[in-house]
Specification:
The structure holds two protein chains of two kinds.
Chain A lengths: L28 H19 L3 E4 L4 H14 L8 E5 L5 H14 L3 E5 H6 L17 H11 L4 E3 L16 E4 L27 E4 L7 H10 L11 E8 L2 E4 L13 E7 L10 E3 L5 H10 L4 H5 L9 H8 L3
Parallel strand pairs in A: 1-2, 1-4, 2-3, 4-6
Antiparallel strand pairs in A: 5-6, 7-8, 7-9, 9-10
Helix pairs in contact in A: 1-2, 2-6, 6-7
Chain B lengths: L3 E9 L5 H11 L5 H13 L15 H6 L6 E6 L3 E7 L7 H9 L3 E7 L6 H12 L4 E7 L8 H15 L7 E5 L23 H7 L13 E2 L2 E3 L7 H4 L3 E5 L4 E2 L4 E5 L4 E8 L8 E2 L3 E6 L10 E3 L6 E12 L6 E2 L3 E6 L2 E14 L6 E2 L4 E2 L4 E14 L6 H4 E6 L4 E8 L3
Parallel strand pairs in B: 1-3, 1-4, 4-5, 5-6
Antiparallel strand pairs in B: 2-3, 7-15, 8-9, 9-14, 10-13, 11-12, 11-15, 12-14, 16-22, 16-24, 17-21, 18-19, 18-23, 19-20, 19-22, 23-24
The chains are: A alpha/beta, B alpha+beta.
């Protein structure tokens, strides 16, 4: 039999509350969230022809991959994973992605933004705010169509952003990949409507009810490996609009934006051109859990330059087919 | 200290202050982050509003901010040292009733807001009725805007009496009344010094303490088979014969060694192991997601049900149910053909009869009605093409609830709740 996903629990600190059941016939917070996610994953595997799991190598998709291992254990994960690669990713994350994929034995599909740019399907943005983040939508939709995927798991959480707070767990997308927030399917109990016509798809979000802190507590409980950039390290950065961006060849930097070296870590993993670092000395998982429990700023507010372009930036991107 | 999750839905008329209440709960429990608050303050200022409009925290869609109303359910998260909360913030407009039903279907508790100045409105009755129809186990009637009626006890008592009269016709398992001011924060997180006459807990204290552990059905064993795990790895002898039935427990407690019955075959066998990726467990109860391994090689597939020999659900093709009809375009009529999804089983169904349509304000049954339109509620008889394994909804929300899907559009057109017959 394949090895069970490993896990050992520690019990001494406050965070462990969410790993412990309050009493008999009750489940702990993390167990409840896990049970819901496993049910959702099995429902998708049972009802769709061609599901795929979106995997970026970030913490949420790392949790998703572990949940997929658990849902079908001791069998293999019955769907491939897909990375929408902007070509501007952190090298540490790419390395981690390939390692994790090899360990789990899932098939990796890469949807490449660079290829789309080379083929002239999309145009490389230029200027100070240039980011390929938005171009992911086109690469994603193209890959979904090419592989005829009818369900795509995403690691999005409702606590991330106000438009995401409105999203169903099974989120219907038309043949153009569009989300229509006013016409979402009612979602009753745990009875999910999985029906789509050809060309349409459902985005499925098993982590809908998880918060950032739940993710970290789960990463810690399950002893999940993470890309090194999540832990505090010395890095060359510069500050723009309150966000610390890594000095890297993909981002246009003005002369008055000076590079300096400081201890940082990342709360989210995304395109290097728009994902900010946070000042931190947290080098272990317990440090990170403590830091997240105490923070007064949201994950996206602190680290995502692209959400700031307008009040409804995320909603607008989602309507176009973004995750 | 415990840490479980309470899911609650908020409901009430437009402008009764739902968004303000949620903003207040999040704000006073320190669950609003600085950047969110700054964004709200900035937008409020740009619009020329004096105070930070906490409703902007929950109205996340462009159209909602434009119109100043809530269109769809938004889910919010906050935690206190005692509990974690998931709020389903549901819209008040009649046209979004289906979204209120969406929010209430998974809720342990519903908070229905009523404006102390206006008393019981059509929407307060409607939402209280929907909450009880969906059997949300706990109902809180929060009489809001008490600051605008000089914190008048008599006013609160009058609304309470009015609702108690209405509730006498409903099946309300647990009902609590709390006078509050969401705007001023009276009786929301802390006790209000302005209402000495009220001796109950503030809303948050009630949410923290309400007992939900016994709301699940731990008596009737129900295990809808969701997915068959058969690894089929020739190289690994331990896996070659592995056959597991994965699913989420919908009721009762299962243990290894238990004799169980498989439906529809009616065959009996024994549970040999309750397996999870973290190792076998000694028992499984709702809502655990586990994998059952059985002593005998029975042909079991998705959509089947595992139960106990002496305690079985109804195996039936005839279903009597309350329906909340949700289609904007198509009415429900006798002879409508639809797809019914119940637990993990999907079957075709035809509407045999519309017994009556219910007026949710008066609870009057219109037996002459032969259709249900958008947001209407009524009792119908359905005939399915294959048997389904049902319980009355009042006994188990998971094995008593179903959805109807229009196969021509794939839209979810109804929420159904099986009536005990």
């Amino acid at each position: 039999m394949p090895d069970r996903p490993r896990r050992t629990a520690t019990t001494s600190e406050a965070w462990t509350d969410m790993t412990q059941a309050p009493s008999r016939y009750q489940m702990s917070q993390l167990d409840l969230l896990e049970a819901e996610a496993l049910y959702i994953m099995r429902e998708v595997a049972a009802e769709f022809e061609r599901p795929v799991l979106l995997f970026s190598g970030g913490k949420d998709s790392i949790v998703m991959l572990r949940l997929a291992e658990k849902a079908f254990w001791p069998g293999p994960i019955p769907f491939p994973v897909m990375h929408v690669d902007t070509g501007h990713n952190f090298p540490e994350v790419m390395e981690f992605r390939d390692r994790r994929v090899a360990e789990t034995g899932v098939r990796l599909i890469v949807a490449s933004v660079q290829e789309q740019i080379d083929a002239g399907v999309v145009r490389e943005p230029t200027g100070r705010w240039a980011s390929r983040n938005r171009l992911q939508t086109s690469a994603l939709l193209d890959a979904l169509e090419h592989h005829r995927f009818d369900a795509a798991f995403g690691g999005a959480r409702r606590d991330e952003e106000k438009a995401r707070a409105k999203e169903r767990i099974f989120s219907f997308r038309d043949e153009f990949g569009q989300w229509e927030p006013k016409a979402q399917r009612p979602e009753l109990w745990n009875t999910f409507n999985t029906r789509v016509a050809q060309g349409e798809n459902i985005r499925v979000f098993p982590l809908s009810n998880w918060t950032e802190l739940d993710i970290w507590a789960y990463v810690r409980r399950e002893e999940l490996a993470l890309p090194s950039i999540y832990f505090a390290h010395e890095r060359s950065v510069f500050e723009r609009d309150g966000i610390l961006l890594a000095d890297n060849p993909h981002v246009h930097r003005d002369d008055d934006e000076t590079v300096f070296s400081t201890m940082v870590r990342y709360r989210t993993v995304g395109d290097m051109t728009c994902t900010g670092a946070v000042r931190s000395t947290a080098t272990t998982l317990p440090d990170i859990v403590a830091e997240i429990a105490a923070t007064r700023i949201t994950e996206r507010g602190q680290t995502r330059a692209d959400d700031r372009s307008s009040e409804a930036a995320m909603e607008d991107r989602k309507r176009e087919g973004y995750f | 200290m415990t840490n479980d999750i309470l899911r609650f839905a908020t409901a009430g008329s437009v402008d009764d202050g739902k968004s303000t209440l949620i903003g207040r709960l999040l704000y006073d429990s320190k669950s609003i982050f600085e950047d969110q608050l700054e964004a709200v303050e900035r937008t409020s200022r740009d619009r020329g509003e004096e105070d930070a409009n906490l409703a902007l925290l929950t109205d996340g869609l462009r159209a909602e901010r434009e119109q100043g109303i809530t269109i769809d359910v938004a889910y919010r998260y906050f935690a206190t040292p005692r509990r974690t909360f998931i709020i389903a913030d549901t819209p008040g407009h009649v046209q979004y009733t289906r979204n209120m039903v969406t929010g209430a279907s998974t809720a342990d508790l519903a908070v229905v807001l009523v404006d102390a100045r206006k008393g019981l409105q059509e929407q307060s009755r409607r939402h209280a009725f929907l909450a009880t129809l969906l059997r949300v186990p706990h109902l809180v009637f929060a009489v809001n805007k008490m600051d605008l009626v000089d914190y008048d006890e008599a006013r609160f008592e009058r609304i309470k009496d009015e609702f108690t009269d209405f509730a006498a016709k409903l099946d309300v398992p647990d009902l609590t009344f709390i006078p509050i001011s969401a705007l001023r924060g009276d009786n929301v997180v802390g006790r209000s010094p302005n209402m000495d006459w009220y001796d109950g807990p503030p809303l948050l204290r009630h949410l923290e303490n309400v007992h939900i552990a016994s709301d699940r059905n731990l008596v009737d064993v129900r295990f809808p088979v969701q997915y068959v795990i058969r690894p089929h790895r020739a190289a690994d002898p331990a896996l070659h014969d592995y056959r597991g039935y994965a699913g989420q427990v919908a009721g009762g407690v299962l243990k290894p060694g238990d004799t169980v019955t498989h439906l529809p075959s009616g065959l009996e066998t024994t549970i040999t192991e309750i397996s999870t990726a973290d190792g076998p467990v000694a028992e499984a109860f709702s809502p655990m997601s586990v994998t059952l391994r059985l002593a005998d090689d029975i042909d079991i597939s998705r959509g089947d049900m595992i139960c106990r020999p002496q305690n079985q659900p109804s195996v039936t093709q005839d279903v009597d149910a309350m329906l909340c009809w949700m289609s904007e375009t198509r009415p429900l009529t006798a002879r409508s053909r639809l797809l019914l999804k119940h637990t993990t089983r999907s079957v075709r169904t035809v509407v045999r009869d519309v017994h009556y349509q219910l007026d949710v304000n008066t609870l009057h049954r219109d037996e002459s009605a032969d259709t249900l339109r958008l947001n209407q509620i009524g009792r119908v008889a359905l005939r399915t093409t294959q048997p389904i394994f049902t319980d009355a909804y009042r006994r188990n929300r998971l094995t008593g609830g179903f959805i109807l899907v229009d196969e021509s559009t794939n839209a979810t057109v109804a929420a159904g709740m099986i009536v005990d017959t």
